[in-house]
Design a protein that fits this description.
Blueprint (H helix, E strand, L loop, with lengths): L10 E5 L5 H13 L3 E4 L8 H9 L6 E6 L6 H14 L4 E5 L7 H18 L4 E5 L2 H7 L5 E4 L4 H8 L7 E10 L5 H12 L3 H7 L2 H7 L4 H9 L11 H4 L2 H8 L1 E3 L1 H11 L5 E5 L6 H4 L2 H4 L7 H9 L7
Parallel strand pairs: 1-2, 1-9, 2-3, 3-4, 4-5, 5-6, 6-7, 7-8, 7-9
Length: 318
């Protein structure tokens, strides 16, 4: 049997390391209460994801995933060592997702990522995922990884991208999420804009050329910093380019709306994928986090299929 321990339940929560430690722990405890898998992101403006994982592992029993860390930012050997240290120190189950992140040389980034995936599979006995938004990396990484973290939360986009998966592996939908209305809507729109144009093939396929051309010159790092310092993006001229596409960003690049709308979207995604991660900024809104127990109560027809798929995979398949 494939490593059944540590495989995610149907719902996950992305927690990033740009809040005070006590707040991160408080949110992680709510995820643990709801039996929701925790996924920790990497960004140069956040605390190191391995530090955050070490922090929360002292308080929770649910699986802890990394979604994602980049083998371009730190060596694959360093990633392996960091994961091994966590495994030695904590009894939690860990899941590791990698992706190149930002890069200048697509060919090099592609090769480094695939090489690292193979090495991780050789040296770590935990589920290994690759973060994907384009057909090429999806096709090649699905031959190696235990699962794919898809950067999409809209059913039509997922149906398109899963066609490029080569093997029957774990499929994860990972998208910006929020219960609306919320004071964090500007963070949601910013997150949607960041993920919306990550694949040129996707942009061409679904006709987002005009929107992505408008986003090309946006300084996302600056906008994130403004929010981290308590600023209001609605007062920033640059943010108006994002607001212009508010409706399409919310509908097609987020998992958002009232709680019933979220449940409906999650159910729809679980017809295609095995696991749904509520991405940044969901974890920032503590009122929303307290509703995780309600969100996890989702009955969906694909559950029996999911259990069958995961329990019938052999280690040779991976």
């Amino acid at each position: 049997m494939v490593r059944k321990k540590g495989l995610p339940e149907v719902l996950g929560l992305n927690i990033n390391g740009d809040l005070p430690d006590n707040k991160i722990v408080e949110i992680a405890l709510k995820a643990d209460e709801a039996n929701v898998t925790i996924w920790i992101g990497e960004n140069e403006l956040f605390k190191d994801p391995f530090y955050v994982a070490d922090l929360v592992a002292d308080f929770v029993s649910v699986p802890i995933g990394f979604g994602i860390v980049s083998p371009l930012r730190r060596s694959c050997s360093e990633i392996i060592e960091s994961v091994r240290n966590l495994i030695k120190k904590h009894s939690n189950e860990f899941l590791l997702g990698i992706a190149p992140g930002n890069f200048e040389d697509p060919k090099s980034a592609f090769e480094i990522t695939l090489k690292c995936l193979r090495k991780l599979k050789d040296y770590l006995d935990i589920p290994i995922f690759c973060g994907c938004s384009s057909p090429k990396i999806t096709k090649e990484s699905s031959k190696i990884a235990d699962g794919i973290l898809f950067n999409y939360g809209y059913p039509d986009f997922l149906r398109w991208i899963v066609k490029f998966v080569e093997r029957d592996i774990i499929r994860v939908a990972f998208a910006p999420a929020l219960i609306l209305p919320s004071e964090f809507e500007q963070d949601l729109l910013l997150a949607c804009a960041i993920v919306s144009c990550s694949s040129r093939r996707f942009v061409n396929e679904f006709g987002f050329d005009s929107m992505c051309n408008d986003f090309t010159k946006l300084n996302f790092k600056r906008l994130i910093s403004i929010r981290q310092n308590g600023g209001n993006l609605f007062e920033i001229d640059e943010f108006r380019k994002i607001l212009k596409y508010r409706e399409v960003l919310l509908e097609k690049f987020s998992i958002s709306g009232n709680i019933e709308s979220l449940k409906d979207r999650i159910r729809a995604l679980l017809q295609i994928c095995d696991h749904v991660v509520l991405g940044d900024p969901f974890f920032r809104d503590y009122k929303a986090v307290k509703l995780l127990k309600d969100l996890i109560k989702i009955n969906h027809p694909s559950e029996s299929l999911r259990v069958h798929r995961l329990s019938n995979c052999s280690t040779q398949d991976f």
